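Final report, section 2: Outcomes. Of the targets proposed, Iron-containing alcohol dehydrogenase is the one most frequently requested by collaborating groups, and we therefore present its record in full.
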Amino acid sequence: MERFQLKPTIYFGPDALAALDALAGKRVMVITDAFLSSSGLLDRVTARLTGCTVERFTEVVPDPSLALVARGARALADFRPEAVVAFGGGSPMDCAKAMVEFGKKLEAGLAPLFYAVPTTAGTGSEVTSFAVLTDTERGVKYPLVDDALLPDAAVLDASLLAGVPPAVTADTGMDVLTHAAEAYVAKQASPFSDALAEQAFSLAYEHLKPAYETAGESRAKENMLLASCMAGMAFNAAGLGLCHGLAHSLGGRYHVPHGRLNALLLPHVIQFNAADAGAARRYARLAGRCGLAQNPRALAAALNRLRAALKLPDRLSACGVEAGQLRGDMDALAEAALADLCTPTNPRSVSVLDVKAILKELV
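The predicted structure is given below as tokens.
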């Protein structure tokens, strides 16, 4: 027997932030980062929290650490909110998920409503049971997977993306494509996740470059936000694969943006997985949905062209990773990728030698 579930209520379209009006009069903790807190965007959120007692936790940083989450969970437990609003990209989302879950363990009876408001089109974290935390001492990223991490509501307001820098749009957009592609070929894929993954991939493939090239609000950015959410729902059900396992391994050690690593890795992982006949057929269908020749090689080549158009690097050395350092770390990187929670649902079995071969192509 298989299972498919959708939990978060999704609010989208013009003025979607109005969904926060439902929290009027409650004790609310808003979790975000220092930049968003000072940018003026956060004021649009707090303006909706009429009559609320609001506590702001603004310490979130990229790749949130275990220590940060512990500090935040204590602050959350002490404040005892009736609702939590996670506001930002993947890092505030992941940090908030962990803070809420660990805060419940610190304070009996704590059960806040959890609203997730993304400000980038990338992680899809607003609709997933995933969070990624970093052990800064060991240089390791740990994916957490538990249905308890799912938000109660996702609020998709595309106007929040108007000021996102092009480089961030590129990084996060490639994450969307990777989520959709990996979910589509994952071992736990189903007809339900397939429908979401196909639509997410074709939307992102069509609209990422226009979103990157357009300043301010645009239809392309709105479609990228929808694609990000759909891809999140798809991989939450189907799982991911080797591309994410490797991205977590590399990102934990070298601190390269996650989407940038996915942009580098995905074409290589597609070529590797295409040795599996079932995966090859699915990649071919994705290529066809995008108007490409229906084969995995055409899909990988198109993603490389898109990466170049987005001015993303084509080698790890261009990301600041020295070749000698990479070679010295290769065994540890490969082992970490294989141990990652995302890798087991990859459609093709993977060995240490397979991972090292892919890494050697990226030096």
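The longest helix spans residues 191-213.
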